[in-house]
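Deliverable D4.2, example record:
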Amino acid sequence: MRLTMLLIMALALPGMTGGGAEAAFPQTPEALRAAVDNLQLVDDRYDPGPQLILFYERRAFRPAWLDPAHVRTMVAAVRAAETHGLDPAHFHLAALQRLASRQAPAVLVAEGREAHLDILLSASFFRLAHALAYGCLDPARFNQDWNFRPKADGKDRVDLLTAALADGRIGEHLENQAPSHPLYRRLRTALANYRRIQATGGWDPIPEGGLLAVGLRDPRVPLLRARLKRTGDLRVDVDGDPLVYDQSLADAVLRFQERTRVDRESDKVNDKDGEVGEATLKALNVPVGDRVRQLRVNLERCRWLLHDQPDSFILVDMAGYRGYLFNDNAIIWRARIQMGDPYRETPSFRSAVTRVEFNPTWTVPQGILQKSVLPKIREDRDYLKKKHMQVFDRDRHPVDPAAVDWHSYTAANLPYRIVQAPGPHNAVGRVKFIMPNKHFIYLHDTPYKSEFGRNDRAFSAGCIRVDKPFKLAKRLLDSPDDPWTIGRIRDILASAQTRRYEPSRPTPVLLVYLTAMVDDQDQVLFREDVYKRDKAVAEALDRCPAEIAGASQPPG
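Output generated by the structure prediction step:
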């Protein structure tokens, strides 16, 4: 049974025989104690029952919401959940509105509903506070490797409600539960803007046709102008033939392409920057409702992970193919990344950089050994030499590759390790960043620098290839007692010897999957859902209110 129905049932007096509303709800502390003691709330994400019991025990089971102004403020706070991408119905808005509309104490007492309203308001507060702080959904349902765990417990929420009722700033206390990080605040602003676009009609789809480029005349140009004005990409409207695709429009299209990471290379007509071909047209015609849903999904993801973060941390934005180092909420390093392909997804988890390794070796992992290296060794006896690779037995003794019958082994039963020597040819480049985790995932340099120029950069074996890795190493290792410079790093690289250094303190790393975010220039960025993770989260967010909608009618 769902939360609201169980809440209503728990409020029924023991021995109730089906009388009128006056008999259905307790009006004394003793009856309120019995009702709260008998609460059996069930919810797959969050159960406020224990907090309700503790809260009313501390109050000696006296009603908490006697001030009508507090009731109005709480109802307004539930409505405001929508601005966070949450559905107010999930927090019992309909029932609260009905009861609060008859909030005069004499009326509530006469109807026997004052206790019902009191407990329902408290339950809504606890539920909303938790959802704003840590999300409405359980992230572990969508990612078995999830290891971001909230530190707060139920007692914190009881203290919060007690303080909110004492000073009357109920809405403010609830708002303060949401992440304060700029990533979250900017996404929330973007949601409001896109909802305004949606409320005023969204945008009309642009019909298919040939390539749109500077100088061409096309009847679709006015539609394209209107579409780009709605999202602020077209900032200058030049007088002239309204059907001609001019440079101002090309500039606006380029801004849109950069915001949505349109893969121009995939277009059959091969549209270039600032031109509209098939891929760009497809992105332009994504309905505004889909963009609103995308923003809601990513606000939820931010609530899952943006709490209890230190001043300095690395954010690996996988869907955006970007890495960021934050310090005091400011970005002090940013770089392009390459991540795991859809068949070898890079998982989302939290760790910390505990060691920086220059001139690293690379031990070929089993998957790559089976798929790529073993077949090439069999085809070319000089393959290992060309790739600067050595063979070692289990005791780490060198083995002559010519003495091994490579056709007799698979990756699963090969009794040797294949290790690539340090150098610019090394598969993990000249530096790697060790962060303990069960997946053996780490950040690293790469010899494949040209691949950073691609829009779609999901093609690694799972680890994170990082552009500008030496600047990151300097940032992580530098300290007043041990200053680091790029020159010092160059000297270490020139030695060709593997060197390992530990930062003065580990820097947390968050590997996250955000298909929408807003950058520090207030540009709303939409990304392809390359791992196909959005749909399940969006459907779960939409199901939450549906699961309790039929149970929100109080009896009487």
